[in-house]
Input
Amino acid sequence: MIHFDLDKHDINHIHFIGIGGISMSAIAEVLLTFGYNVSGSDMKSSKITEKLLKKGAKIFIGHHEDNLHSCDLVVYTAAVKEDNPELQKANKLNIPVISRAEMLGLLMKKFKSSIAVSGTHGKTTTTSMISLILEYSDFNPTILVGGELDQIGGNVKVGSRDYFVTEACEYVGSFLKFFPHIGIILNIDADHLDYFKDLDHIIDTFTKFASLIPKNGFLIACKDDKNVQKILPKLNCHILTYGLNNSCNYWADNIQFNDRGHPNFNVFFNNKFLGKFELSIPGKHNIYNALASIACCHNLNVPVEKIIKNLKAFKGTHRRFDVLGKIDDITIIDDYAHHPTEIKATLDAASKLPHNRLWCIFQPHTYTRTKALLNDFASSFDLADKIIITDIYAAREKDTGQIHSKDLVKAIQAYHKDVSYMDTFEKITAYIRKYAQPNDLVLTMGAGDIYKVGKMLLEKDKIKG
Output
């Protein structure tokens, strides 16, 4: 294990391979703030790398062994392969090398109370909710979030050493490198099957994560999730549950939605009325995210009235039901949903908005996920009126030819007839411009670059133009 002390600077110069990633860049910014020399490389320049450059990091575009200059420690992401020239050079020079997850775990050890938000879905939103409640309640937390949050000016905010709030991703068992004082498990679902063997493997990994919580810490868990329920009897830490029934410690009742799909609901703690809450983001799934946030902050002694006020002030993060704009009375929304459960939740939220027809433009994310969950994807689009599927976003994978978006279209046709495949964003935007009608809602979904479709539509003065 690398010895790392934020204050003593035994390690001074830290190099990041893949510094433009949302989590890597956040860690790099924290270290810059604490006075470390930071350098890093990425395949292309971005707003994130430009921001780090302005803050004092040395940025290299492209990966090359010459990018390593007198560094004391190298940090890499899960996407970096063994043949990466910088990784090979570091190993050749015997420079210590650790993963992003290990680096984040080392950071967490330096805070009095580290809050790690895990779950297959909802991590970014819940982390953001907790962060803003604590920030606006004068807790001055240090925040690392997996999305762009306007209220903190990006994806990271360096505060005091008391509270550290971060997402905890299960992919390749990353969160098993963490040191949480407070752990949150929102849900457990089949995903990342390019790494996990099956659902049992996933459940076992979440069990190991929860087991990292010390006895004086606590786990906040969604009792309504059947897979989360399976791990609770195996744990020794203090457990707080939440859900939509009164067997939970925190539960919501009297749920109502306004004409924008925003819910309001009563919350009870151990069957005593805690307060009436209202969200400024849509969807039933966000009630669950809010309950996890309420449980966390209430147990950190944040006054209930401040939790109520700050949850209502939360407007969401970028790419989470992000209303991009409106043109010719056609509303364009973008969302990060890329798993069948997320698609259903997002379409359910969209269906509660006043609209004529609901268009869903979906970009599958990774070949492995598309193939493994093909049947689940096929039945996820019931609430959409018109469906367009575009090519699979490869991300970290290579196309082996075993699955294609046309296979998904064929599978969807068993449940929904109005579905088509289009291979370019230009074809999609042209089709929408031609056939979209006033009061239609156009929803782009996926974890890749499908958001560009919405931007392309809004670049035109008139959608029919």
Q: What stands out?
A: The two ends are 60 Å apart (CA to CA). DSSP finds 15 helices and 21 strands in the chain. The chain has a mean pLDDT of 94. Residues 378 and 412 are 4 Å apart (CA to CA).
